[in-house]
């Protein structure tokens, strides 16, 4: 089985590692001339770290990660705080695997090193995929430089603007959500002592929210600030903004939020788009994974984790499965699609929850938080995510 993968992001590299470990031949074609993730953080819940332990890179990842001790909710203006749940040891006891927060370039490096240990020349850089052709016997991936490569299956792991998805199903029509996300990395030593903690914090307010959590053994703090704003609509990891504009967006928010904003060396902004959940991912010998087929708002912190789960389940479906390649890909898709689409919907429903107008008034806000973040409701929102086991789910 020779599998071609378009895109060496977190999803593509996880799939490559899983497939190589499971005995397939793999080649990954990445448009960028060097492997680099944007300098931003990522939360990896137990359902994602489980996959990395199964692939033998859990300990390497742990060495680069931060094991966040817990999560809390804070109110945008008064700073009132509610403890949400314990993570750290609790995640291991409850779900069997840790909850890591990690700097994206570190995770990419761990994955790329592991892929290259299995097959030194598996990752082809500076090779942009522009299309494909398939018939009943094989699939051919076309590269921008005019060359084509042949294989038994092609996986589009080429992210939110996927060329492979467009080749399968035509251009999509993303809708702007009216929310932009600011992000930045703050050196922990720049923050006041009471903020330099290994805790993930979710500030909620009318029309916006801010999430921050520690990275790199607590040396960095990751910042994401989401705000309802309709005057800017670019979906990009590399669009820069200024600290002054960011501070204006969060005017009236608590001083701790502004302590973060002041200390971000380079703030970036991203317009959040939604695409309707897809009813199909595969045609013949070609399928999709990750953001290419289920991009989602970052409000459940599950976009990358879903891509990681996809990669492992795909590896199992192609290597363990019976039947021809198209039927193996259909089994992968039917094992994954409903869950991924549920995460797309769950992420979207958090906009209303995090940005609720009830949060404008501190007394009403207190009742609202007590209700929305009551133990049972939190469990309903997260248990189905964290308990999933990509290594044994039926395919
Ligand atoms: C602000 C923000 C915060 C987030 N926080 C979290 C979080 O805490 N937890 C979480 O799980 N998720 C989070 N996400 C979501 C997560 O970033 C994505 O879901 C994840 O990066 C998707 O991985 P992917 O491999 O599918 O795509 P990508 O990471 O986009 O990788 C796609 C790769 O394909 C390459 N490529 C694209 N086109 C081509 C082509 N034509 N030819 C060759 N190569 C190509 C790209 O260069 C890239 O390397 C967040 C997202 C945002 C915007």
Explained architecture:
With 395 residues, this protein is α/β, with parallel strands linked by helices. It has helices at 10-21, 46-54, 58-64, 89-95, 104-118, 163-169, 243-249, 255-262, 291-294, 303-320, 325-354, 362-372, 375-386; strands at residues 2-6, 25-29, 41-44, 66-67, 70-75, 81-86, 100-103, 123-124, 129-134, 139-143, 148-151, 153-156, 175-187, 199-205, 208-215, 220-228, 268-274, 286-288. The strands form 4 sheets. Strands 6-5-14-15-16-13-17 form a 7-stranded mixed beta sheet, sandwiched between helices. Strand 15 and strand 16 (220-228) form a beta hairpin. The longest helix has 30 residues, at 325-354. The protein is globular, with a radius of gyration of 21 Å. The relative contact order is 0.18. The mean pLDDT is 94. The chain binds flavin-adenine dinucleotide (FAD). Flavin-adenine dinucleotide (FAD) binds at residues 6-12, 29-32, 42-43, 128-129, 157-160, 163, 181, 183, 224, 270, 290-292, 298, 301-305, 307.
